[in-house]
């Protein structure tokens, strides 16, 4: 178990006159978290499904902490790659070289790779970014005078820079866990590393991942296209055609997906 005492004390110190209350708040939160029934090793039943106790705890609490999934060698590989990537970051947001004057990580990438923030800031909270899902602006402590103007906040696409991260992403037991939750027909499609360096790391506002409003709009548009095609085929007296029947099936599928999405959102 990680001893978070130093981290808690360092965090609370930024709250000035309220530092004592913040420290107590964090300690109470840690105690409550450790008392929850949502942590332990990965385990599966005789049929290869994720253990029912884990599924139930996940459903009850909304998250589950797996312990002992990676061995020491795997963790060491990840640490080595993370340090290597960090040393290759641009020296500031507008730079194309790292601290050694070498081409910086992701400098030739077509997609966004590194997101920056002011030290100890909350760049997403209370904004319209990411479809406005970070609704609350977190407290932004004052960073030390010698802090950099900007600090790395999120690294996107780390799998292309780190074999250790790629191996972890494809860990067979973790994929099996994902399959137990999502079903067999799923595909991992995204990865992001939040970077929180001591004294300058930015906050991540409370939020819920996923943008169901956008999905609903997409489903509505697809449904309208299908209806238009069905009306056209009906006008051409092709209602008995295979295409017409397939369109009806697709409309029913879209409607089912739409209702499921709205139910999840609510």
How is this structure best described in words?
With 266 residues, the protein is mostly helical. The protein has 2 domains: 69-209, no CATH class; 212-265. The protein has 8 helices and 5 strands, in the order ααβαβαββααβαα. It has helices spanning 5-12, 19-34, 52-61, 72-87, 163-169, 172-182, 212-235, 242-265; strands spanning 39-40, 65-66, 114-117, 151-156, 192-194. The chain has a 3-stranded antiparallel β-sheet with strand order 3-4-5, with no helix packed on it. It has a two-stranded parallel sheet with strand order 1-2. Mean pLDDT is 84; it is low at 258-266.
Strand order of the largest sheet: 3-4-5
Q: Count of DSSP helices?
A: 8
Structural class: mainly alpha
Gyration radius, to the nearest Å? 24 Å
How can the largest sheet be summarized?
3 strands, antiparallel
Shape: globular
Report strand %.
5-15%
The separation of the N and C termini measures 36 Å
How many domains comprise the coordinates?
A: 2
N to C succession of SSEs: HHEHEHEEHHEHH
Helix content: 40-55%
Q: What does the average pLDDT come to?
A: 84
Short description:
This protein has 266 residues and is mainly alpha-helical. It contains 8 helices and 5 strands, in the order ααβαβαββααβαα. Residues 258-266 have low confidence and may be disordered.
């Amino acid at each position: 178990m990680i001893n978070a005492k130093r981290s808690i004390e360092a965090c609370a110190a930024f709250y000035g006159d309220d530092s004592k209350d913040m420290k107590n708040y964090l300690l109470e939160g840690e105690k409550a978290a450790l008392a929850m029934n949502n942590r332990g090793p990965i385990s599966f039943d005789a049929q290869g499904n994720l253990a029912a106790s884990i599924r139930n705890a996940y459903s009850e609490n909304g998250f589950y902490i797996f312990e002992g999934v990676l061995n020491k060698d795997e963790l060491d590989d990840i640490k080595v790659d993370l340090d290597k990537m960090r040393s290759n970051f641009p020296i500031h947001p507008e730079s194309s070289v790292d601290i050694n004057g070498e081409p910086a990580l992701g400098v030739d990438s077509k997609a966004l790779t590194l997101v920056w923030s002011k030290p100890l800031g909350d760049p997403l909270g209370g904004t319209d970014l990411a479809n406005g899902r970070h609704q609350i602006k977190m407290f932004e402590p004052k960073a030390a005078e010698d802090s950099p103007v900007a600090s790395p906040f999120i690294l996107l696409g780390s799998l292309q820079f780190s074999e250790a991260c790629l191996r972890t992403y494809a860990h067979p037991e973790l994929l099996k866990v994902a399959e137990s939750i999502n079903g067999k027909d799923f595909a991992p499609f995204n990865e992001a590393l939040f970077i929180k360096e001591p004294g300058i790391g930015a906050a991540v506002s409370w939020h819920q991942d996923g943008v169901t409003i956008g999905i609903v709009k997409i489903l509505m548009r697809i449904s309208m296209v299908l209806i238009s095609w069905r009306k056209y085929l009906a006008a051409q007296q092709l209602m008995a055609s295979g295409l017409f029947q397939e369109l009806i099936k697709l409309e029913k599928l879209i409607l089912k997906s739409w209702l499921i999405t709205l139910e999840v959102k609510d």
